[in-house]
Amino acid sequence: MGAGHAHRLYRHGHSPVHGLPPHTKLAAAFLFVVVVVSTPREAMWAFAVYAVLLASVAYHARVPAGFLLRRLLIEVPFVAFAVLMPFVAEGERVHVLGLSLSVNGLWGAWNVLAKGTLGVAASVLLAATTELRELLLGLQRLKLPPLLVQIASFMIRYGDVITDEMRRMRIARESRGFEAKGVRHWGVLAKSAGALFIRSYERGERVHLAMVSRGYAGSMPVIDEVTASGAQWRHALALPCAALVVCLLGWFL
Amino acid sequence: MHVPDGFIDAPTSAVAGVVAAGALAVSLRGARRELDERTAPLAGLVAAFIFAVQMLNFPVAAGTSGHLLGGALAAILVGPYTAVLCVSVVLLMQGVLFADGGLTALGVNITDMALVTTVVSYAVFRGLLAVLPRKRRSVTVASFVAALLSVPAAAVAFTLVYAIGGTTDVSIGKVATAMIGVHVLIGIGEAVITALTVGAVIAVRPDLVHGARGLRQRLRLRVDGALVDAPAAEPATPAPAAARTSRRTLWVTGLVTSLVLAGFVSFYASADPDGLEKVAHDKGIDKKEEEHAAADSPLADYGVKDISDARLSGGLAGVIGVGVTVVAGSAVFWALRRRRGDDASPVNTSV
C-alpha cells in the first residue's frame, strides 16, 4: 500500500497524451482497433503505417520502446497459435525450406499476428497513459451502465487486496512445508480457493455495511465529472482518423 | 482462450458485441434481484475473487499447470446473473488494462466465456439438483458435471463463432476437433477444482453457496434419547417466497399494531391532556392579567375560559376542561388514525 496506488501498467507522466480526457482516449483506442481489424490483410503496407502511427503516439506520450515491447509479450500464446496455422490450414501449399505450408494459413497467421499485435499495442498505450480511476470515469462517461462501472471499480479497488490475501495464504501453506507438485495436491489448493471466496464475500458484506452507514443508497455520487473540449476530441480522434484514411487506401489500392 | 483482435472478422464481432450487451442488460436486472442494493460491492468483490483465483496455479504434472476459468464456479456460488456480470467485468478489465483479449473481440469473449459457460453450467447444475437426492454430496457432484460440460460448451460456442466469422480458412472440422479435444481435457481439471472448491465452501458456509440454498437441514431435537423434528419447523418454501410472506406478515402486524397503538395512545392521550390542562390551568391563573397575549393558542384560550369558569364555580371548571380536552384529543387522534389508515392502504396495494 505504501508504494502508491497507481497500477503497474500505468506510467506516470505529464505528456499531451496523459493530459487528454480518459473517454476521448478510450474512444480513440477502440475506433483505432476497429479500423485496424477491418483493414484487408493483403495491404501489408497499411499495417506498417499503423505501427508508425502508434509509434508516434508512444513518442508523444514519452513511453519508451522497451516498456511497450515488454508489455507486448502478453501476446506470446497467440503467436504460438499463429505459428501453427500455416501447417493446419487448407488450400494450395508452398514449400519453404522443405516445409509444406498453406498459403491461406500464412495469410491467416500474418492477419492474426499483425492485427493482434496492433490491438495489444493500442491497449498497452491506453493503459500506460491513463490512470485506473480515470479509466473508470471515462467508461462511465461513455455511458457504460453505472452499476457495471461500480462493479468494475470495486474489482479494481479490491483486486490487489484479494490477490495479497491469496499470496499470504500461499506463504502460510509453504511455511508449513506444503508444496503443490501435482494433481494429488489439488484438494489443498481448492480449499484455499474456497477460503478465499468466503473471505472475499464476507469482505464484500462488510464493505457494503460500511457504505450503508455512510449513506449509500444504490448509486455513487459523481464528484468529478470529466469533460472534453472540442480541441481535445480533435487531438484524440486524430489517430483513428489517420488510420481510417490508411484503411480506405488499403481497400481501394 | 481470450480471443485477440483480428481473429474474428468485424461484422461477426459486432454481432457478438450486441449479444454480449443484451446479456449484460438482462444480468444487470437479474443481479439486482439476486443481491438487491448490495450488488455493486458484492459483485465487485466476487469479480476480484475470480480475477485472483485465475492466478492460482494448479500443477498438473512435470512443470505444466493450469488455472481455473471460474465461470461455472461463479454461477454455482453467487447465482447465474451475478456470475455473468462478474466474469464480464473481469474480461472487460483484462481487455482494457492488461491487453488480454482484443478490444473489438470483447463481445466474442464475453459471449463465449461469460455467457455460455455460466448459462450452460447453471442449467446443468439446476437440472442435476432436481434429479439427485437433496444432500451435500449431490451439490458437489452436480457442480463437477456442470463445470465439466461448461468448458467444452464454450469451445463449441467459439467454434460456431469461428465458423461464421473466422478470418482463416482452417477447416471447421479441424478447429472443432482441436478446440473441443483440448477443452475436454481442460474441462476435467476445471470440474475437479470447481467441485473441490464448492465442497470446501459448503463445509464452512453453506449459506453462501447460491446453488445449495434448498439444502438447509431441519432442526432435530433429542427428546428422551430419540431424535424428533423440532416442532417449529423451518418453512420449506424457497427464500423469495418466504421473504414475500414475511413482508405481508410484517405489514399486517404493523397495521394491527398501529391501530392498537393509536387506540391505546388515544386513551393514554386522554389522560395526558389532563395534565396538560392542569399546566395550562396553572399558566392561565398565572397570566390572568394578560389574557390577550396568551389568547393566541387555542389551548391558552381554553385555559382562559376555564379560568373564568373556575373563578365562578370552583371544581366544575376542571371537569369541563378535561371533558373538552378529551373530545378534542379524541377527535385529533381519530383523524390521525384515519389518516394513518389512508397512508397504509397505498403501501398495501404497492406491496
Automatic annotation (TrEMBL), chain A:
Entry's localization field: Cell membrane
InterPro entries, A to Z: ABC/ECF_trnsptr_transmembrane, ECF_CbiQ, ECF_transporter_component
Keywords (A to Z) from UniProt: Cell membrane, Membrane, Transmembrane, Transmembrane helix
Membrane topology of this protein: Multi-pass membrane protein
CDD domains on file: EcfT
Chain ranges passing through the membrane: 43-60, 72-89
Keyword presence, Transmembrane helix: yes
NCBIfam families: ECF_T_CbiQ
Protein name: Cobalt ECF transporter T component CbiQ
Organism for this UniProt entry: Streptomyces nogalater
Automatic annotation (TrEMBL), chain B:
Protein location: Cell membrane
Keyword Transport among record annotations: yes
InterPro entries with a match to the protein in the record: CbiM/NikMN (IPR002751), PDGLE_dom (IPR025937)
Keywords, comma-separated and alphabetical: Cell membrane, Membrane, Transmembrane, Transmembrane helix, Transport
Membrane-related topology note: Multi-pass membrane protein
Residue intervals of the PDGLE domain: 248-338
Principal localisation: membrane
Transmembrane segments: 7-28, 40-60, 72-93, 113-132, 144-164, 176-204, 250-269, 315-336
Superkingdom of the source species: Bacteria
Keyword match Cell cycle: no
Descriptive protein name: Energy-coupling factor ABC transporter permease
Organism of provenance: Streptomyces nogalater
